[in-house]
Amino acid sequence: GAINPTGHASVYLSRVCAQTPVVLRRCDPGEFGIVISRYRKLSGYDWIAIPLVPYLYAVEDFASIPEEANAETVAYLRDEYRRNHLREIVPDGAGGQTPKGSWVELIGAAYNRKIYGFQIETTEAQDQYVISVLNSRKNKSHFDLFFNNCADFSRRILNLYYAGAIRRNYIADAGITTPQQIANSLISYMNHHPGLPISTFFLPQIPGSRQPSHRVDSVSAGLARSKKYILPLAAFHPWVACSVFAIYLANGRRDGTRPG
Q1: Residue-range domain boundaries for the chain
Q2: 111: how many CB neighbours lie within 10 A of its CB?
């Protein structure tokens, strides 16, 4: 958002697939895994798992990915996938129309934003453990922007694989987990565990439907860059604004999308 542009965080599991969007299983040969994340106001569920290709492009296979797509095409692709696979979670609107709401975040992410990621080696035993944990726990939403957001879910999943790898930043992010903090934590973990294979990747935004996405920020950086918020904050609470800006200068300038 304009006030706090910290981005969205999700986890791609290449050997874990979806029996349903809310039940996980091991992948069969030829399957590409799922992207799993926490969402808000989706039939009361805490997390939803979507196969990789539709999560990125709202189509069933790589051959169907468009080189560009306008807003109408993106809306059609998303609704077509919803009708075929997600109606139990996202039912039709009145008169069978496409429903409104945040469900569009489930599919076609590459039309909305550039995607930066880290790739970490895991074992089949770790994958099975994560499947067991998520399938056994109640999948009920307790979304909270500050302490139970999408990045918090990603932090907990990654910590199931590597305990203590992802930590909150109580200075630059005021204890709020953000995608940038996850990236910074992974870089730090990599530096302390040089034997762990880790790499980065980048997926470009599909042009045509939206303006190019912006860089992600820490909480303090988002506040410092947002005139819409920082100016009234400075007017009514100047010491808070000065503190936020000082924190940003001291701790918020690191770009977590680039290791080192």
Answers
A1: 11-251
A2: 26
pTM: predicted TM-score of the whole model, two decimal places: 0.76
* Residue 130 contacts residue 171 (beta carbons within 8 Å): no
- Three-class DSSP labels, the chain: CCCCCCCCCCEEECCEEEEECCEEEECCCCCCCEEEEECCCCCCCCEEEEEHHHHHHCCCCHHHCCCCCCHHHHHHHHHHHHHHHCCCCCCCCHHHCCCCCHHHHHCCHHHCCCEEEEEECCCHHHHHHHHHHHHHCCCCCCCECCCECHHHHHHHHHHHHCCCCCCCCCCCCCCCCCHHHHHHHHHHHHHHCCCCCEEEEEECCCCCCCCCCCCCCCHHHHHHHCHHHHHHHHHHCHHHHHHHHHHHHHHCCCCCCCCC
Give the mean pLDDT per block of 10 residues along the chain (260 residues): 55 94 96 91 92 95 94 97 96 94 92 87 94 96 77 90 83 68 86 86 86 55 47 47 49 49
Query: At 17, phi and psi to the nearest 5?
Result: -125, 175
